[in-house]
Amino acid sequence: MIKLNKFVSIPSTVKSIIDDIILYSVKVTEKMYILNNNIKNHHTWWCAMYGLNIACHNNKIKMIDGNNCYYPSINNLTESHYIAHYSCDKIYNKRQIPNVDISLFPNNAFYNSAKKYLSETKF
User: Fold this and answer.
1) Helix (H, G, I), strand (E, B), or coil: what is residue 95?
2) Backbone phi, then psi, for 42, in 5-degree steps?
3) For residue 78, what pLDDT is reported?
4) Closest by alpha carbon to 86, among 72, 67, 75?
5) Where are the alpha helices (DSSP H) in 1-108?
6) Which long-range contacts (CB under 8 A, 24 or more apart) does 104-111 make?
7) Which of 25, 74, 86, 96 is deepest in the core (most CB within 10 A)?
8) How far is CA 99 from the centre of its chain?
9) Above 60 in pLDDT, residue 28?
């Protein structure tokens, strides 16, 4: 496992396909932009998830292990998690961005990273 910073670790599986994830994420974003008559749309933020799915499929990696994902309010964040499923989070509701109450965030690496992002990003 490699460390990107003090918050993010990448298991060796992701490390082995990271170039493909980036490649396909960019391709999906470009394709969505073209299909949308060169207008950015709100779905392009999904490009990394699409890229991850394509890279896993092409490298015959099954994405069925729920133990790889942190589900806020459902399980506890561990070093083995390399994705966070924040769409099911009642505290960090993406529909409320930028009006998310970050004072409600628990003290863990996921929420601390989200708090930093929301505090430093101009919306």
Assistant:
1) helix
2) -75, -5
3) 81
4) 72
5) 12-35, 47-58
6) 108/77, 109/6, 109/7, 109/8, 109/77, 110/70, 110/72, 110/77, 110/84, 110/86, 111/72
7) 25
8) 20
9) yes
Q: Kindly state the average pLDDT of the residues 23-43.
A: 76
For residues 78 and 50, give the distance between their C-alpha atoms in angstroms, rounded to a whole number.
Answer: 24
Q: Which two structure tokens, joined as six digits, stand for 123?
A: 């919306």
Length, in residues, of the chain: 123
Three-state secondary structure call for residue 84: strand
In angstroms, the first-to-last Cα distance of the chain is 34
What residue has token string 């974003």? 29
Q: pLDDT by residue (tens digit) across 57-98?
A: 898 887 766 677 788 878 888 877 767 776 678 888 878 888
| Interior/surface letters 39-70, b for 16+ CB within 10 angstroms, e for the rest | eeeeebeebbebbbbbbbeeeeeeeeeeeeeb
- 3-class state of residue 9 by DSSP: strand
